[in-house]
């Protein structure tokens, strides 16, 4: 079995062959083909789309590398593309950096890169520059990836949590906790493989129609920390409170079962293909209809509202409200 060796990160022949035979072929595009130390990108394409850049970066260390609905490669494309897209920008270009552990099966790397390339191509977001490093056996766990992305924000669009005010409506774009529950199921061998699948997806096509709807205030993709973390971020930025209704949360039956079995809250589970939105009340139905018109948002639902009273709360059975605290740490490390 062929494996990654220290020579694959040395800059010599082994590294050149890896780059040429794997990365250049998988990510093939005109910018990468120039083989310079940087991608030389046309500003005209950006300025035609907006007046500000959205720029984001994220690193991916998920364990296991492969899971129902995705893998670390697909995740590395989707996660960064979504961080750019929630600004209202169209993700335009990506970079990627690999940290490889000595001894990693080459077949594993090829599988990850192939998945990355397929996801990027399907989304129309080329990977235009990158880097590869190899560390000694034991200095990393198999494979880590960093991606960064840029896009242009349309002129006049100012989505952001500081725009939120009391009376706004809170919406999620679909069922919650699918990714977190899927990873937990694999790690703990709960035996629910057929019923749980990660929601890992590029959300730019879901977000694009919202640009033309007045009253959209803020969007976040609910990754680590789940919806709960987003609600706390919204509350801290706007100075208002967030209240959600437990019975209105869209949950897959399998996710609900995992939560009941282990005493966990789906609001804390990571998602990799779901949005949390704050919108003006008079825009809520239009936003909901736009989301539900896309397969990625078919289960979108209104889950609560923004209130004057500070804090984050959830209304449970019989309307009794409880404070929704932010956990001290991620209940499931290396979730993305």
UniProtKB/TrEMBL annotation:
Residues 48-152 form the PurM-like N-terminal domain. One of its GO terms (biological process) is protein maturation. Pfam families: AIRS, AIRS_C. Transmembrane segments: none annotated. SUPFAM superfamilies: PurM C-terminal domain-like, PurM N-terminal domain-like. Residues 166-314 form the PurM-like C-terminal domain. InterPro entries: HypE (IPR011854), PurM-like_C_dom (IPR010918), PurM-like_C_sf (IPR036676), PurM-like_N (IPR016188), PurM-like_N_sf (IPR036921). It comes from the Bacteria. Belongs to the HypE family. PANTHER family: CARBAMOYL DEHYDRATASE HYPE, HYDROGENASE ISOENZYMES FORMATION PROTEIN HYPE. This is Hydrogenase expression/formation protein HypE. It comes from Buttiauxella izardii.
């Amino acid at each position: 079995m062929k494996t990654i060796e220290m020579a694959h990160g040395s800059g010599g022949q082994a590294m050149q062959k890896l780059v040429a035979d794997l990365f250049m072929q998988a990510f093939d595009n005109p910018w990468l083909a120039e083989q310079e130390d940087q991608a030389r990108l046309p500003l005209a394409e950006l300025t035609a789309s907006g007046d500000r850049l959205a720029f984001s970066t994220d690193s991916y260390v998920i364990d296991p590398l492969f899971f129902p609905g995705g893998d670390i490669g697909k995740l590395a494309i989707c996660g960064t593309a979504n961080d750019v897209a929630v600004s209202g920008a169209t993700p335009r270009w990506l970079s990627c950096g690999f940290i490889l552990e000595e001894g990693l099966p080459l077949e594993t790397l090829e599988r990850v890169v192939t998945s990355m390339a397929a996801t990027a191509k399907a989304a129309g977001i080329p990977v235009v520059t990158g880097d590869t490093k190899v560390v000694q056996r034991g200095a990393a766990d198999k494979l880590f990836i960093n991606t960064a992305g840029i896009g242009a924000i349309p002129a006049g669009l100012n989505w952001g949590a500081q725009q939120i005010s009391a009376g706004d409506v809170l919406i999620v774009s679909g069922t919650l906790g699918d990714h977190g529950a899927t990873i937990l199921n694999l790690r703990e061998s709960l035996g629910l493989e057929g019923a749980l699948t990660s929601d890992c997806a590029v959300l730019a096509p879901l977000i694009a129609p919202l640009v033309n709807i007045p009253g959209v205030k803020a969007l976040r993709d609910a990754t680590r920390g789940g919806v709960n973390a987003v609600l706390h971020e919204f509350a801290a930025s706007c100075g208002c409170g967030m209240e959600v209704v437990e019975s209105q949360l869209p949950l897959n039956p399998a996710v609900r079962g995992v939560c009941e079995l282990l005493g966990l809250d789906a609001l804390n589970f990571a998602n990799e293909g779901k949005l949390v939105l704050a919108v003006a009340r008079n825009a809520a139905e239009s936003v909901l209809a736009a989301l539900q018109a896309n397969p990625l948002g078919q289960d979108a639902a209104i889950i609560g509202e923004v209130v004057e009273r500070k804090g984050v709360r959830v209304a449970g059975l019989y309307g009794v409200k409880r404070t929704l605290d932010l956990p001290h740490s991620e209940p499931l490390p290396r979730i993305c």
